[in-house]
Design a protein that fits this description.
It is built from ten helices and 20 strands. By secondary structure, it is of the alpha+beta class. It is globular, with a radius of gyration of 22 Å.
Length: about 375
């Protein structure tokens, strides 16, 4: 029977260790037997895709490659209605993938999935020999809790996931700093868990003494009225965070207050949310991180970040670190980030930076958050 290389490679909302089993009727009664696995990858970049589609005439799979290209790659019909093929040379890290059956997109129920691009998407991981901070290791593990609250703006129920370190259970009198961690466009509060593996990253860094113990709060950024058409920045996450989420966390959890004990970070769209919220409330966060984003003014922005960074003495004095990161293959964003860094230097704002090979993908954001977490609190 196939044994997963590590639960983090296949874990998602419905399994920790995926139980690829099916029921088979035998003369002795029903038995559980091993079922097809939708994706199997190895450390050498070989990925076998499989899908059960006995009545299909054509099945293919696609994923974004290092050149930002996505094209259907055909699968071959095997025995018992299974379509399968192995492709080699796939880059290490996280990849969304799309199965296509007779020209129509189809979810593969035997492959991992997460929420991205405002829909459920299959994904797969190619193990990375150079980066293992997101794997499930034999270390003490923290807890993840779903907290539900009412939006004071819309009246809608919203939810955040909250990670607490193992010491939160074992040291009942201790208080903790908080990192508010934002997802990207088309994602939600599950992204940093199922795609980002932030709980395992935190477990590993804390167990190795590479970062301070902290609480991590993962909100959903869409505080919207459903009966009106929304802009790209949908709703008022800024107000929901400041008026609802932070007070709730500081009421329900043992947290250290004051800006020196608050950090905010986000990826892509969430990085712009992060910069705007940090600048809109000078002195609320001492640590700000933009992963794959720039603070240049946009038509959907609600605060001029450059104006605040340049002219707010409170912002400059209370910001201990303004961190930016980028994948070096992001040709559009890369020069913008470098210009933003030069502007921070010009304004005397302490800033940090990380880059690594990669595109606008979870592989880059995982590595980026690892570096940021080691520099805060």
């Amino acid at each position: 029977m196939y044994k997963p290389l590590n639960p983090a490679f296949e874990e998602h909302g419905l399994f920790f260790n995926p139980a690829y089993m099916t029921m088979k009727l035998t003369k002795g009664g029903p038995k559980h037997v091993e079922n097809l696995r939708g994706v199997v990858a190895d450390y050498d970049g070989n990925v076998t895709f499989s899908m059960y589609a006995p009545d299909a005439k054509e099945v293919s799979v696609s994923w974004v490659d290092i050149n930002y290209q996505e094209k259907p790659m055909p699968l071959d019909k095997k025995e018992d209605g299974v379509w399968s093929r192995t492709y080699s040379g796939v880059e290490p890290g996280f990849h969304y993938c799309h199965f296509i059956v007779d020209g129509q997109p189809a979810m593969n129920p035997q492959a991992p999935f997460g929420y991205g691009s405002h829909e459920v998407e299959n994904f797969f991981e190619v193990p990375d020999r150079e980066f293992d901070d997101y794997l499930v290791k034999d270390v003490p593990h923290g807890s993840v809790t779903l907290e539900v609250f009412n939006s004071s703006r819309t009246g809608n129920l919203n939810a955040v996931y909250v990670y607490t370190p193992v010491s939160y259970r074992t040291e009942p009198d201790r208080k903790y700093p908080v990192l508010y961690l934002n997802h990207g466009g088309g994602e939600n509060e599950t992204g940093w868990l199922w795609q980002g593996k932030i709980n395992y990253i935190a477990d590993n860094l804390m167990a190795e003494g590479r970062c301070k113990d902290m609480i991590i709060v993962m909100p959903c950024l869409y505080d919207i009225y459903y009966d009106i058409e929304e802009e790209f920045i949908a709703g008022d996450y800024d107000g929901m965070l400041v008026n609802d989420i932070i007070p709730m966390i500081e009421d329900r959890y043992r947290v250290l207050t004051g800006c020196e004990n608050r950090a905010i970070a986000g990826l892509s769209m969430g990085s712009y949310h992060t910069a705007c919220t940090s600048c809109n409330h000078p002195g609320l966060f001492a640590y700000t991180a933009m992963l794959s984003g720039s603070f240049d003014d946009r038509w959907y922005g609600w605060v001029n970040c450059r104006d605040v960074i340049e002219n707010s003495e409170e912002f400059r004095q209370k910001t201990k670190l303004f961190y930016m990161s980028i994948g070096t293959d992001e040709t559009r964003l890369y020069p913008q980030v470098q210009e933003n860094r030069a502007f921070l230097d010009k304004c005397g704002v302490k800033n940090g930076y990380y880059e690594c090979p990669g595109l606008h993908v979870w592989t880059v954001w995982r590595k980026s958050i690892v570096q940021f977490m080691q520099q805060i609190f």
